[in-house]
Request: fold
Amino acid sequence: MTRTLTLLAACAASAVLAGCAAMNQLTSEVSSYSAWPADRKAGTYAFERLPSQQLRAERAQKVEDSARRALEGAGFAPAPEGQPSEYVVQIGARVSATEAYYDDPFWWRGGFYAHRFGRPWGMGFGLSMPSVRYEREVALLIRDRKSGQPLYETRASNDGGSSSMDSLLPAMLDAAMKDFPAGSATPRNVTTELAPR
Reply:
């Protein structure tokens, strides 16, 4: 009996720990496109902002700061102050909302419904229950500074019930750069760790 209880307690603890670990992870769908020369190595980089990003400098800075861990994990280093970089990095992030209705016959999109609650059939009035999902996406492009040639393009996306992605950006960018310099246009799921707050 004691052995059984100990085994059950160990199983329960493992399940709780697995659940906690899953809460610290993020799975993103990643697609990458590579024209990276086989003999070329990562080097120094600098961010380049589009005119629209220059208008929102604070937001652009936050996205760039979130990308540093992923770029440095792939072997890149920021160019020293006042020195030209070997590579130019452009980065963007977006969130879009999709409204869907809860798919349950009980909550039909307005109008009358008939539903049996274990007894005779009853009539009632159902209201639509909208649910908003947010699709979050990051995209990163690395170009050779001298030639301007695009060498590596990657993007990562996921969705959820929150429009906030600031805390998710580093994990999403880690996912996007996970297999650098390999490319795979076929979308694949990549799980990365969320940074502790």
Remarks:
- The chain is about 25% helix and 40% strand.
- The first strand starts at residue 25 and ends at 34.
